[in-house]
Amino acid sequence: MSCQEEPVVRLALCLMVLTFLSGCGVVAFPFRVTGDAVQAVPVVGKPLGKPIHAVGDAID
Questions:
Q1: Is residue 8 part of a domain?
Q2: Which of 35, 41, 52, 60 could disulfide-link to 45, CB 3.0 to 4.6 Å?
Q3: What is the pLDDT along the chain (60 residues), one digit of tens a residue?
Q4: CA 29 to CA 27: how far, in whole Å?
Q5: What pLDDT score was predicted for residue 14?
Q6: Does 51 fall in a domain?
Q7: 58 domain residue, yes or no
Q8: Is the pTM of this model over 0.70?
Q9: Does a structural domain hold residue 29?
Q10: Nearest to 38 by CA among 26, 54, 27
Q11: Domain that residue 53 falls in
């Protein structure tokens, strides 16, 4: 690879990474998983898990 091609390759790689990370789902995923895990707890799970899951919905 020549010195002239290197910046183009770096730019293309950066754009690909930003495309994959631009989704809000990456940020919302931990809230959704935690909300689902909390909702599995008997009795108190539903009231506590719904607000946590709602944060994931708000991020999306």
A1: no
A2: 41
A3: 555 567 778 888 877 776 666 667 777 788 888 888 888 888 888 888 888 888 888 877
A4: 6
A5: 75
A6: yes
A7: yes
A8: no
A9: yes
A10: 54
A11: 24-60
Q: What are phi and psi of 41, to 5 degrees?
A: -75, 130
Question: What are residue 55's phi and psi, to 5 degrees?
Answer: -65, -40
Give the pLDDT confidence score for residue 9 in this predicted structure.
Answer: 80
pLDDT of residue 21: 64
Instruction: Return the closest-CA partner of residue 51 out of 40, 42, 38.
Output: 38
Round to whole Å and give the CA distance between 7 and 24: 28
Q: Which residues of 12-45 are buried (b: 16+ CB within 10 A; e: fewer)?
A: eeeeeeeeeeeeeeeebeebbeebeebbeeeeee
| E strand intervals along 1-60 | none
CA distance 60 to 56: 6
50, 35 Cβ separation under 8 angstroms: yes
